Amino acid sequence: MQARLFDSDLETCGLCARRCVIPKGKRGFCNVRENVAGNLVTLTYGKVTACGLDPMEKKPLYHFLPGTQTVSVSSFGCNFTCRHCQNHHISQEFCRGVSRAEPEDIVRAAVGAGAESISFTYNEPTVFYEFMYDVSRLAKAEGLLTAVITNGYMTEDAVNDIAPYMDAFRIDLKAFSDSFYQTVCGGARLSPVLDSITRAAELKKHLELVTLIIPGVNDSAEELSSMLSWEMETLGFAVPHHFTAFSPMYEMTDRRAATHADVDAAFRMAKDAGLYYPYVGNVMHAEGSTTYCPECGKRLILRAGYVCRMPGVKDGCCVKCGRRIEGVFSVPDK
Ligand code: SF4
After folding, report:
1. pLDDT at 333
2. CATH number given to 45-280
3. Ligand 1 proximity of 20 Cβ (cutoff 6 Å)
4. N or C terminus: which one in the chain shows less Cβ crowding within 10 Å?
5. Does residue 12 have its Cβ closer than 6 Å to ligand 1?
């Protein structure tokens, strides 16, 4: 399948900020885009490693169709090589013998299951961009919403290209230093991630951020403070931000797991800084699992694991004071 988004030299991939120059017969950094006789092609189109129902809360997306099921779709490959990847068996392997699917199959599965959305997730969707693009376009035609769970390393062209068919961007903000992206993520950089976050916000897409707290690696008070300052100056106070607990895995077993205290510290910093919707993930944390009204403090959405109840929200507004709560609470025209 011919790749989307390449430069006029026909060799430079324009999908992600690595911008690989790929000579004939070679592949890019992600190992799933190849120059075949002068044509850049994707090797992941229609190759599906997972297609199944998940609670939206698992993504995690807390302000996007809360309490609903989404059809999660993944392929294989990644443009990062994170040392702590929890899905390294599909992100760092060239998976052969996977299921084949057409975009129509995915959309039919979602409609048949009664899902209201399709999410692109598990491995980095940027490296199965063409399939995501075609599935999303069809999904929108069927009245489904769409979400991409991404490391945010897409180019601006890639974000702009998919934007008409993508409703939500759940972007990892893995750290707030170039050194982390360089050493942990395989020679990546922070600034393209910040650019994608900013672009998704400018395009008025639903946006949520996730920072996996790795004790002693990305959770210093200085680093988190810089992250929060950038976030609030650039995006305002209302982007949900999840601070989730690291567990040792893959190539990063030399670090201890994050404790309740570690993620609670990040959560408190965000809350004290004025963020409306900080959350905690991967540890039990009642306050960090609850959505509060920024105006009157009413408890709006209560979560236990992936189960959620919404006693305080009606038609996207706080039932007590009427404040509109940032997010997408229903499918338009449904
Ligand atoms: S998607 Fe990124 S890593 Fe893969 S070939 Fe394109 S620029 Fe390189």
Report:
1. 64
2. 3.20.20.70
3. yes
4. C
5. no
How many whole angstroms from 90 Cα to the centroid of ligand 1? Answer: 16
Q: In which residue ranges of the chain is pLDDT below 70?
A: 333-334
With a 6 Å cutoff on the Cβ, whether 35 touches ligand 1 is no
| pLDDT computed for residue 9 by the predictor | 79
Residue pLDDT, tens place only, 278-313: 999 999 999 999 999 999 999 999 999 999 999 999
Question: Which pLDDT value is given to residue 212?
Answer: 98
Rounded-to-integer distance, Cα 139 and Cα 104, Å: 9
pLDDT at site 138: 98
CB 220 within 8 A of CB 262: no
Q: Quick one: pLDDT at residue 90? A: 86
Name the one residue in this structure whose structure tokens are 């592949």.
Answer: 27
Alpha carbon 275 to its chain centroid, in Å, reads 19
Per-domain residue ranges for the chain? 45-280
Report the residue among 21, 29, 44, 129 best suited for mutation to probe ligand 1: largest number of ligand atoms under 8 A from its CB.
29
Evaluate: CB of 16 within 6 angstroms of ligand 1. Answer: yes
Question: Is the CB of residue 28 below 6 angstroms from any atom belonging to ligand 1?
Answer: yes
Give the side-chain half-sphere CA count within 13 A for 327.
Answer: 27
Claim: this prediction has a pTM higher than 0.85:
yes
Q: For ligand 1, say whether the CB of 71 is within 6 Å of any of its atoms.
A: no
Among protein residues, the one with the nearest Cα to ligand 1's atom 2 is: 16
Tokens of residue 161, six digits: 């290209």
Residue-wise DSSP of 202-259: HTT-EEEEEEEE-TTTT--HHHHHHHHHHHHHHH-S-S-EEEEE---BTTB-SSPPPP
The predicted pLDDT at position 140 comes to: 96
